[in-house]
Specification:
The longest helix has 23 residues. With 360 residues, this protein is of the alpha+beta class. It has a nine-stranded antiparallel sheet with strand order 1-4-13-6-7-8-9-15-16. A seven-stranded antiparallel sheet has the order 2-3-14-5-10-11-12. The termini are far apart. A hairpin with a 5-residue loop joins strand 2 and strand 3. The radius of gyration is 20 Å and the shape is globular. The chain has five helices and 16 strands. It is 21% helix and 31% strand.
Length: 360
């Protein structure tokens, strides 16, 4: 029996071929970084819910669990004044609606009203739909000026472990997926205090974001499928350690910053710039830089790229359905998703611990 490929079959085959070529382009354009990894106990400690944090026998991998009792989280034992922070992460699989996994830097515990923050936030989804994630930047408590960008991936992060990295220097911020830069923020005078400038810790958490994370809160965490587990390994903490209050460095931060700026991951080569362009044009489905409803005047750090601008409506959302992953539905909370996440994260280390204590 001869199988005749229909129009939809041909279209799907073409999409898969394009996806394969795209992946190869990214792979060859972005060389792997030479990184020095650490054990968990060399740079991190438990933040909350110790009973939901599981470490491997060699301390190379840590698993963070979410169940009815609590989420869980870890924090770096030091504050850093600039640096490169990275981990290989595998996200929970199946029934992930309402779940938020975050890898981020912050100093909200020390500077509650004028904190800085850099975020990777992975947002679970309803069955059959891919995980989505967003990046964000806050500086000096600038929570009213969210700087979200949202994306999908060319792989399934539930089945494959990939490296996610934050670079923070005096001159720029770069978000990486594996060795591919997906977003760069260049410091300028116009940003003023909105550029993160105070020492930050590094965090990783998993928690219940049912009120906003999936379909504007319509799809919530289903604890019939608990526990939900995210795994982290190959941890990297490279930067200048400082006292968060006195901001006294353990070494000379000027020298460390010079060395940081000379690292391969601090420089976006023409090849990596092309890889970033490919990623953003194919997998970014929201950018605040193109959201003329929220920002009548484009924020000063935004670099408007014509090939990107043509893809987005004035709401900052795509004009057409996402390639390789279906359509993007408008989120009811508009641009407040990142703000809601930040506000909930500020309290979750206390509230989840109280919840766990009362439930046990």
């Amino acid at each position: 029996m001869i199988h005749v490929c229909t129009h939809s079959c041909l279209r799907r085959s073409l999409e898969l071929l394009i996806l394969f070529i795209f992946y190869l382009l990214l792979f060859f354009k972005a060389k792997a970084f030479n990184l020095t990894t650490i054990r968990f106990d060399e740079g991190y400690s438990n933040l909350f819910s110790d009973f939901n944090i599981k470490k491997s026998f060699n301390d190379q991998t840590v698993s963070l669990l979410l169940n009815r009792l609590s989420g869980s989280g870890i924090i770096s034992t030091d504050y850093y004044n600039h640096g490169f922070f990275s981990a290989i992460i595998k996200l929970p699989s199946d029934h992930t609606a309402g779940i938020v996994v975050a890898f981020y830097t912050s100093n909200v515990d020390t500077f509650e009203r004028n904190h800085d923050e850099l975020d990777f936030e992975f947002l679970g989804n309803v069955d059959g739909k891919p995980w989505r994630f967003q990046t964000n930047m806050y500086g000096n408590g600038s929570v009213s000026r969210g700087r979200e960008e949202r994306y999908r991936l060319w792989y399934d992060p539930r089945l494959e472990s990939h490296r996610y990295s934050l670079l923070w220097t005096p001159k720029n911020i770069i978000f990486y997926v594996d060795d591919i830069p997906i977003r760069e923020i260049i410091r300028s005078d116009a940003l003023r205090g909105d550029y993160p400038s105070k020492p930050m810790s590094v965090y990783a958490t998993i928690w219940d974001g049912s009120t906003w994370a999936t379909n504007g809160g319509k799809a919530k965490v289903n604890y019939k499928h608990q526990p939900f587990v995210t795994q982290m390994s190959d941890l990297v903490l490279e930067g200048c350690r400082v006292d968060p209050i006195e901001q006294v460095p353990s070494t000379n931060c000027s020298d460390r910053n010079i060395l940081l700026l000379q690292k391969p991951y601090s420089i976006i080569t023409p090849e990596k710039k092309e890889a970033m362009k490919l990623f953003r044009e194919r997998y970014m489905f929201y950018s605040y830089c193109y959201d003329n409803i929220r920002y009548a005047v484009t924020p000063p750090e935004c670099v408007i790229v014509d090939s990107e601008r043509r893809l987005f409506k004035e709401t900052g959302r795509l004009r057409q359905k996402m390639r390789f992953g279906g359509g993007h539905k408008k989120r009811r909370q508009g641009g407040n998703g990142g703000r809601n996440a930040r506000e909930q994260r500020r309290n979750h280390s206390v509230t989840t611990a109280q919840h766990a204590t009362s439930a046990m």
